[in-house]
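Q: My labmate handed me this sequence with no annotations at all. I'd like to see what the chain might look like in three dimensions before we decide whether it's worth expressing. Could you predict it?
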Amino acid sequence: MHDPARTALEKIEASEIFASADRLRRFLRFAVEAKLAGQESQIKEYVIGREVYDRDEQYDPRIDPIVRVEARRLRAKLEKYYQGEGLTDPIRIDLPKGSYVPVIGAAREPRSKRFLWWAVASGILLLIVVVGAYRRSQQVATDEMIAIVPARWLWSDTGDLSSVDESLAEAVAAELANRGIARVIGWPSMLRYQTGHKPVREMAAELGAAKVLIVSVRDKQGATRVTVFFMDGKSDQKLWVTDFSRGGAATPEAHAELARLIANEFAAKRRMLK
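A: Here is what I predict for the chain of 274 residues:
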């Protein structure tokens, strides 16, 4: 008899939500197979980076956050799957926050109860979001508060494209904050805009950010081109735009160097604007 857990995994992999998400399917299959084989000790960030995302032996999760970024995307897709195509699945596979080890178990409630719970919870959540958004929109933005955003969260189809722009934006936010160059909106607070394509002005108002730093990454013919837009949160006006180009692959070292260069450029340009 076919293993129910593997049957559930195959159904997820064949779903419309995961149809074009090859890397996320590999991530999920690696984690589930290791779990079923009793090898939970192998489901670690470093191992996933090597086995699923083809990082070499120099891979350092502290510098390259690819697995953390992709794990958040995988959790979001699983949640969406179980709200739609997988609503009646008898076996559920979850990836709890703070862990890469999947939880596999029987669905706890029949469809009718789950749907009712989901409808009530969605209504409450919507109310909380609306009230929260209204309160945040009333906050007075300060010149010191900056939001760092990957360009495709705003302007492109997020789909299952490379997460380089997300990783670089997160690295830039950390560089600015750690060096005391600017007060930066925390990265966890930014993640809710990952798939929203929300206008800059509206996002800035909700976050209480006066300025928005947008990071755009383009890979062409083996070279990486990064464009940084610094924008006024209230008017959508571009205050300055700068390009950075690097040859070769987007390695963790190149990532860290670009983040430092962008932070230096930001500090210099900001002094000029004052």
